[in-house]
């Protein structure tokens, strides 16, 4: 009886191991895809340089122009990832952006914006979420590393239940679907993926006090690991509206797990420098989604 019981316990443990391994095997990491296959320049294509067969690119900003690129397709939900190495040295006034955006006036948008700074001062990562054309949901953090020294992963998980911003698989922000309390959520407008490098010295660094020093131009941001794992609505929008078919809308991705919540709290407590939810001068009454967010 004892040996049978032990065998049963062992079988259960083995089964649990394989199940947990299968759950952890979701393809959250980047898949290298040549730039030209899925992306096209948005403007100033002569300010983009290609390396390693198009698996790596560099965006250039000078006093004449910045540049950017966009995905060929539009997507409704998915996992979107890019490895980026930010502009090194004195990057004050520059903005490196990585975002999703729909195409109409009441657009939805999910933003990473990296705000440059004077040499020796830390980069600021600003995130924002637009729904139905309304934004003003800025959050700002310092990063826990120097983003100019090496490539790091920046990604968005977007499904019908939540939108999560990740840095190197660490969740830094969650925007939950709060339609039930009257907050619009991006759920029915396909979005393209964009990235750009541009001059914004009227606001980007210390509210515009620090201007871009063009003597340091060209400013260069480097990219690799171009990855989209989403439902291409431009080819099959009806299918995209059907949930439960992709890894990123399975049950385990409808909320953060306990470890991810711990990491999110760590970011909030140590690295957050601005959160619109706590800005009573802008919002005397806390926005509805922020009241729910306090429970995260």
Automatic annotation (TrEMBL):
The active site is at 109 (nucleophile), 113 (proton donor). It is an enzyme of class 2 (transferase). Residues 1-24 form the signal peptide. Keywords: Apoplast, Cell wall, Cell wall biogenesis/degradation, Disulfide bond, Glycoprotein, Glycosidase, Hydrolase, Secreted, Signal, Transferase. GO terms for molecular function: hydrolase activity, hydrolyzing O-glycosyl compounds; xyloglucan:xyloglucosyl transferase activity. One of its GO terms (cellular component) is apoplast. This is Xyloglucan endotransglucosylase/hydrolase. Its EC number is 2.4.1.207. It comes from the Eukaryota. Pfam families: Glyco_hydro_16 (PF00722), XET_C (PF06955). Glycans are attached at residue 117. The keyword Transmembrane does not apply. It comes from Dendrobium catenatum.
């Amino acid at each position: 009886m004892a040996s049978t019981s032990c065998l049963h316990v062992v079988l259960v443990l083995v089964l649990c191991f394989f199940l947990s391994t299968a759950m952890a095997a979701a393809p959250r990491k980047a898949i290298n895809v040549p730039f030209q296959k899925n992306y096209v320049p948005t403007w100033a294509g002569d300010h983009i340089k290609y390396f390693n067969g198009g698996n790596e690119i560099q965006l250039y900003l000078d006093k004449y122009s910045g540049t950017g690129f966009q995905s060929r397709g539009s997507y409704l939900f998915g996992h979107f990832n890019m490895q980026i190495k930010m502009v090194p040295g004195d990057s004050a006034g520059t903005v490196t952006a990585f975002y999703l955006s729909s195409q109409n006036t009441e657009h939805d948008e999910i933003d990473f914006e990296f705000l440059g700074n004077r040499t020796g001062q830390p980069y600021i990562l600003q995130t924002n979420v637009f729904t139905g054309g309304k934004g003003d949901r800025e959050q700002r953090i310092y990063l826990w590393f120097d983003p100019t020294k090496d490539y790091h992963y920046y990604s968005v998980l977007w499904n019908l239940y939540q939108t999560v911003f990740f840095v190197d698989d660490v969740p830094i922000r969650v925007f939950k679907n709060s339609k039930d309390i009257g907050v619009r959520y991006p759920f029915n407008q396909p979005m393209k993926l964009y990235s750009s490098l541009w001059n914004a010295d009227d606001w980007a660094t210390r509210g515009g006090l620090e201007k871009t020093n063009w003597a340091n131009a060209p400013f260069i941001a480097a990219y690799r690991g171009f990855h989209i794992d989403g439902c291409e609505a431009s080819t099959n929008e009806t299918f995209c509206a059907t949930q439960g078919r992709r890894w990123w809308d399975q049950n385990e991705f409808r909320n953060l797990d306990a470890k991810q919540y711990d990491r999110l709290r760590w970011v909030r407590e140590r690295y957050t420098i601005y959160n619109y939810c706590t800005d009573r001068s802008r919002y005397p009454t806390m926005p509805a989604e922020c009241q729910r967010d306090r429970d995260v």
